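Progress note, sequence design subtask.
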């Protein structure tokens, strides 16, 4: 009798094992979906922070030169950070911003600035009667929506 009682107590039933697996699967799904949402918010914040940093650097550049760099991502990176090329100019008091190597596609002066999704930032300068510039990222969908939908913009 003692052996029979012991056999009934030992081990888990198939139903118990399936329930534990189901609970673990639900928990993993909740954890992973929360992580994905947090990562998306983090990347959006990174892009907004980079745009704000670029705007500050552009304001300082504008004080030195009285104008903004011409359109184009590579022009923006070079004119704000390429000390080797532009330090000879008496007006250039840069670098105006320090880029992280992981944010650039190559070494300066051949680099373009990449957003957190690995796409190039856009920079457009319009020197019209009211000069203005625009900086934007394609955002999480990695599609250029001209500042609409999920694009992250400076204006």
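Output:
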């Amino acid at each position: 009798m003692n052996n029979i009682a012991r056999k009934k107590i030992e081990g888990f039933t198939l139903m118990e094992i399936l329930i534990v697996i189901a609970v673990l699967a639900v928990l993993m799904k909740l954890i992973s979906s929360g992580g994905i949402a947090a990562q998306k918010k983090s990347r959006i914040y990174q892009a907004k922070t980079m745009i704000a940093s670029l705007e500050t650097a552009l304001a300082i550049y504008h004080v030195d030169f009285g104008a903004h760099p011409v359109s184009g991502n590579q022009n923006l990176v070079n004119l704000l950070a390429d000390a080797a090329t532009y330090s000879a100019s008496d007006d250039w008091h840069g670098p105006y911003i320090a880029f992280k190597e992981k944010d650039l596609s190559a070494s300066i002066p051949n680099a373009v600035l990449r957003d957190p999704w690995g796409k190039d930032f856009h920079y457009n300068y319009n020197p019209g009667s009211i000069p203005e510039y625009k900086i934007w990222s394609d955002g999480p969908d990695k599609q250029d929506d001209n500042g609409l939908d999920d694009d992250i913009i400076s204006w």
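The chain is about 45% helix and 10% strand. Work on this subtask will continue into the next period as scheduled.
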